[in-house]
Amino acid sequence: MRAGREPSEVSMLAVTKTISAHTVKEAAEAGLRMFGENRVQEAREKMPLLQSMLPDMNMQWHLIGNLQKNKAKYAVQLFDLIHTVDSMELADILDKEAQKAAKIQDVLVQVKLSEEESKHGAEEADAPGLAMHINGLKNLRLRGLMTIPPFFDNPEEARPYFRKLRLIKDKIEGQGLSLSELSMGMSHDFETAIEEGATIIRIGTAIFGQRR
Ligand SMILES: *Cc1c(COP(=O)(O)O)cnc(C)c1O
Fold first, then answer.
1. How far, in Å, is the centroid of ligand 1 from the Cα of 211?
2. Which run of H or E residues covers position 195?
3. Atom in ligand 1 nearest the alpha carbon of residue 15
4. Mean pLDDT across the stretch 74-96?
């Protein structure tokens, strides 16, 4: 591989927001296993359909969109990995819900690396503290970090953001935690993200075409 990385080090998450259950079924039959949704409500409607159409398929579901606290309970019921934990308060709520569900919930800390108002995520300076906090919660397991850089026509301009996320991971690991995942890179910039250490790339358009 050009990036000098083994293909097995990078997983592709198929982003299925707005994509019909029927099309997701075809993707699963074609061999995809990891699916990402950005809204809890949409996942609550789609996942049971897939479960009934493909009862024996071992599908993994990830939440990649902002999580409202009042949806935490459903998020814990539905998702194998939640990419978007960005506050201690949300972490505490998820920990309680996971305890009730007798589940160890895998999570990522979403880090906000740009000044865009619309982006969610913990501030860079707060990320290590949040990671330590989650590490102290019994029912959450911190697996790594996630970020969404601003959109650039030229993916090269996203590189500093990907590199920054990896440096934050190194810093947190320097404090004794072990983080295996870096969720970064989308259809237009995943190659750059892989070069900078992505372990999960989140791909929608490049698999399913333009969303309506
Ligand atoms: C929609 C979305 C993606 C996929 O974007 P594409 O450009 O269609 O690949 C990835 N990550 C997040 C958080 C998204 O909301």
1. 10
2. helix 190-195
3. 4
4. 98
